[in-house]
């Protein structure tokens, strides 16, 4: 990371911590598990899928990439995220101990993934003495 990237990440960490102090918050990204690791209510989820599925999704999202270009983008993203975790967060991004729940999104549909995360998050809230909510459905 160059100096500008480090300054940006310092600001991002401050924002994440402030948001967590204010109350329930969902942070989507790949550094929250590390930045907020000491927060008692942290519930960290890692979503993963086989590269073929990720390539198809990238092609659908971008619309104008070949399979080879999409695969290169996915592999570069994997490499960059891994390097960031090792050099800045001082951990391995794919270490399951960094997460409370890991879900293969190829195995489950979107609504099942949402339901799994929602139910698990409700258990975390109840464990912290927060209000319980009747399960949806």
Class by alpha and beta content: mainly alpha
Which topology does CATH recognise?
A: Rossmann fold
Unreliable segments of 5+ consecutive residues: none
Q: Can you write the helix and strand succession as a string?
A: HHEHHEH
Give me the Rg, rounded: 17 Å
Give me the number of helical elements.
5
Neighbour order of strands in the largest sheet: 1-2
Percent of residues in β-strands = 5-15%
Would you give an account of this structure?
The chain is mainly alpha-helical and about 140 residues long. It has a single domain, classed as Rossmann fold (3-Layer(aba) Sandwich). It has five helices and two strands. It has helices spanning about 5-20, 30-35, 50-60, 65-90, 110-125, and strands at about 45-50, 100-105. It has a two-stranded parallel ribbon. Helix 3 (about 50-60) crosses helix 4 (about 65-90). The chain starts with a helix and ends in a 10-residue tail after the last helix. The relative contact order is 0.13.
């Amino acid at each position: 990371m160059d100096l500008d990237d480090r300054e940006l990440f310092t600001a991002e960490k401050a924002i994440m911590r402030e948001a967590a102090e204010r109350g329930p918050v969902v942070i989507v990204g790949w550094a929250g598990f590390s930045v907020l690791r000491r927060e008692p209510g942290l519930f960290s989820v890692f979503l993963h899928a086989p590269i073929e599925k990720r390539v198809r999704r990238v092609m659908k999202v971008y619309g104008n990439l070949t399979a080879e270009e999409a695969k290169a983008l996915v592999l570069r993203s994997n490499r960059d995220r891994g390097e960031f975790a090792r050099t800045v967060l001082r951990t391995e991004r794919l270490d399951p101990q960094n997460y409370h729940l890991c879900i293969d999104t190829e195995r489950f549909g979107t609504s099942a993934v949402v339901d799994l995360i929602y139910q698990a998050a409700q258990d975390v809230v109840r464990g912290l003495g927060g209000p319980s909510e009747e399960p949806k459905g």
